[in-house]
């Protein structure tokens, strides 16, 4: 095991059984500012987050300067098809901005630069990147593992047309991924809205739980309460 492999293992091991907090704001929202996202990320770190997931080069850089925990970086471009770190260029830019781990779309949909998932992963791995594959179904997970990623996740379950969107976490897909791929970290991400949800996925064997909206998106959280009051 070389120095790079040792570093990767140590970093990934630090996430085992832990909470990862996703700090993202969407275009046009009041909190869409790198400094704001960095402040939220630091607050999450103080609260116990073992890592931060964030979007965009400015946010990655700002957050990396504020937290000591690992940063999982993505770069969203567009809102259709493959738009989460869609190309080799996007992934490299995330690394240059400070991402310790890069998450990328691991579906079988066409990628904007014409490369396959396997070609993208192989090139990035040759450059020493630590990669998290955002999957929408078990076939995505299979392909990502075959390509050589370090982590697989349920991030895109319910968003690609390959599975029905569940109200909460896609426990069924998580169970499938854990059973099919017991030797690679499987992270559960997507619609974890309560501490009980997070505890359940960890209890099922998830390497870590990623929570975003329920912690860092006050507009949505407020709407939950407002809807409950109105009803």
Automatic annotation (TrEMBL):
It holds the Pfam family NanE. The keyword Magnesium does not apply. GO terms for molecular function: N-acylglucosamine-6-phosphate 2-epimerase activity. Pathway: Amino-sugar metabolism; N-acetylneuraminate degradation; D-fructose 6-phosphate from N-acetylneuraminate: step 3/5. InterPro entries: Aldolase_TIM, NanE, RibuloseP-bd_barrel. Keywords: Carbohydrate metabolism, Isomerase. Its EC number is 5.1.3.9. The keyword Isomerase applies. It catalyses: an N-acyl-D-glucosamine 6-phosphate = an N-acyl-D-mannosamine 6-phosphate. Converts N-acetylmannosamine-6-phosphate (ManNAc-6-P) to N-acetylglucosamine-6-phosphate (GlcNAc-6-P). Belongs to the NanE family. NCBIfam families: PRK01130.1. This is Putative N-acetylmannosamine-6-phosphate 2-epimerase. The gene is nanE.
């Amino acid at each position: 095991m070389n120095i790079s492999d040792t570093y990767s293992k140590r970093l990934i091991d630090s996430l085992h059984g832990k909470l990862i907090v996703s700090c993202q704001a969407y275009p046009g929202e009041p909190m869409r500012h790198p400094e704001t996202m960095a402040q939220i990320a630091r607050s999450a770190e103080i609260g116990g987050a073992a890592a931060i997931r964030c979007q965009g080069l400015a946010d990655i850089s700002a957050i990396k300067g504020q937290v000591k925990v690992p940063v999982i970086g993505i770069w969203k471009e567009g809102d259709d098809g493959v738009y989460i770190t869609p190309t080799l260029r996007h992934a490299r830019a995330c690394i240059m901005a400070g991402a310790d781990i890069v998450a990328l779309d691991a579906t079988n949909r066409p990628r904007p630069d014409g490369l396959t998932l396997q070609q993208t992963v192989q090139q990035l791995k040759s450059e020493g990147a630590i990669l998290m594959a955002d999957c929408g179904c078990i076939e995505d997970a299979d392909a990502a593992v075959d390509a050589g990623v370090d982590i697989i996740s349920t991030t895109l379950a319910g968003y690609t047309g390959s599975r029905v969107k569940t109200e909460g976490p896609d426990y069924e897909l998580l169970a499938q991924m854990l059973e099919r791929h017991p030797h690679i970290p499987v992270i559960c991400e997507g619609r974890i809205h309560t501490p009980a949800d997070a505890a359940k996925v960890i209890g099922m064997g998830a390497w870590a739980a990623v929570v975003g909206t329920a912690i860092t998106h006050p507009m949505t959280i407020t709407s939950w309460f407002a809807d409950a009051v109105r009803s």
